[in-house]
Amino acid sequence: MSITISLTDQDHSTLRTAAYGAVSLMAASGAPHKGITQASIVLTSATGLVGHVLAAKSKDIHLQGKSVAELADQVLPALTAATRLLGEQDPREADNFRGTVLIAVEAAAGPRKGEPSLAAAAMARKITAALDAA
User: Fold this and answer.
1) How far is CA 73 from CA 68, 100, 106, in A?
2) Which of 92, 94, 100, 104 could form a disulfide with 87 if both were Cys (CB 3.0 to 4.6 A apart)?
3) Percent of the chain residues topping a pLDDT of 70
4) Are 81 and 19 in contact (CB under 8 A)?
5) What DSSP designation does 56 have?
6) Residue 20 above 70 pLDDT?
7) What is the DSSP secondary-structure string of 8-29?
């Protein structure tokens, strides 16, 4: 059985803002540059509908703010909204989105040697909570 998902341009923007915003939050919380690069690769390597949306060339990601708090005010609700809107249409794609973002966050947190910084670990927990709030 095939499920057809219908997403608006605004939905696509929400998904991209949420996913790329999560990586931006990790960068703003002090995650290492190499980890941020790996996280971006995770997002561009996604599959399924989520992969198509994240890989599309677009200028609809508008993350603004002068502080981590202002960035989080945009990204965390977008993560919840993206997971919710996918979950309403196809729970598998919601799981795909959640898994992709969590792998990107894990990659951003840094190399396997040692623990991520406390700030990056705290941000990863906030991102996870936003994904789970849907």
Assistant:
1) 9, 21, 21
2) 94
3) 94
4) no
5) S
6) yes
7) -HHHHHHHHHHHHHHHHHHHHT
Nearest to 2 by CA among 92, 81, 95: 92
* CA-based end-to-end distance of the chain: 25
- 14: amino acid identity, one letter: T
Residue ranges per structural domain of the chain: 9-132
pLDDT in tens, 94-115: 999 999 999 999 999 876 566 6
Rounded to whole angstroms, how far apart are CA atoms 104 and 120? 13
Separate counts of helices (H) and strands (E) for the chain:
6, 0
| 1-10 LR contacts (CB < 8 Å, sep 24+) | 3/89, 3/90, 3/92, 5/49, 5/86, 5/89, 5/90, 5/93, 6/89, 7/49, 7/53, 7/85, 7/89, 9/60
Evaluate whether 10 touches 82 at the Cβ level (below 8 Å).
Answer: no
Q: How far apart are CA 109 and CA 36, in angstroms?
A: 8
Give Dmax (Cα) for the chain.
47
Length of the chain, in residues = 134
Return the half-sphere exposure (C-beta side, CA atoms, 13 A cut-off) of residue 7.
26
